[in-house]
Here is the input.
Amino acid sequence: MTRKTYAALLRGINVSGHRKVPMAELRALLGELGHTGVRTHLNSGNAVFRTESTASEEVLALDLRAAMEKHFGFPVDCVVRDHTYLRTVAQTCPFPAAELEGKQLHATFSSGPLDPARYAALDQASYLPEEFRLGDRVLYLYAPDGLGRSKLGEALSRPALHKDLTVTTRNWNTVVKLVELTQ
Here is the structure.
């Protein structure tokens, strides 16, 4: 059986002391689920693991979510993606990633397809120089002053835009690192 490497991107943990998930416990939990080679990156919910499971990315995410709720007492939404997908996200970035600082470019990973109709009401011109583009289950955001000051980022984070989807955002430095770690 072939081992495949994935990244689990957890949403909304370890922010301002809330929903604390120690990375050592996350690594142990992934090991208990039968995954190997488990590593974490930063303290914001990025885990890499190998598995022989033939389960879909969606099932792997649901299994991890259930295990985390049982272990920590609260649900943690996550998106699971394999190396090939992450590499493609990096290679098909519509912005000049190599010319930008990591804090200027972000990828919002989605559990499902992003329908352009969801974003049609956003007047992109009013947010310039900030811009976004849609890809395969990813939204690329260029925010030259960083996400914390981004008016477009704020507009794009409205829950109504992502109804029925799990989304989680990573800066470009983290995207590049996850490509490397899942190789």
User: Anything to note?
Assistant: Strands lie at 4-10, 36-41, 46-51, 78-82, 105-110, 131-135, 138-142, 167-171. The mean pLDDT is 94.
